[in-house]
Design goal:
This protein is mostly helical and 98 residues long. It is 98% helix and 0% strand.
Length: 98
């Protein structure tokens, strides 16, 4: 019976060591995954920062375009107004000459 108990004890000891080895492997894997998550979080933060910078640049370009469009519209409106004034002056001159 002592041989049987020794065999059971040895079997139990072997299983405990296997379990401890498995725990160590799992701890290492968990630590690797935590490092990976931390790296991905850092990448995400950098991506958010870059997205914010690009959004600010886009808004600046959009504002510049609106200003440029308004500037072009103003120039076109001034040109049309000047043409209308010239036509009105010609009409007045024609009326005076009659």
């Amino acid at each position: 019976m002592t041989d049987y108990r020794n065999e059971l004890l040895n079997n139990f000891e072997r299983r405990v060591y296997e379990l401890l080895g498995l725990c160590d492997r799992q701890r290492k894997k968990i630590e690797e995954l935590r490092e990976l998550v931390a790296a991905k979080d850092k990448e995400i933060q950098e991506a958010h920062k870059l997205a914010g910078e690009w959004k600010a640049k886009y808004n600046d370009l959009l504002t510049a375009r609106v200003i440029a469009t308004d500037d072009i519209s103003m120039r076109n409106a001034k040109k049309r107004l000047a043409d209308l004034v010239k036509k009105v002056d010609r009409c007045i001159d024609l009326l005076k000459s009659e």
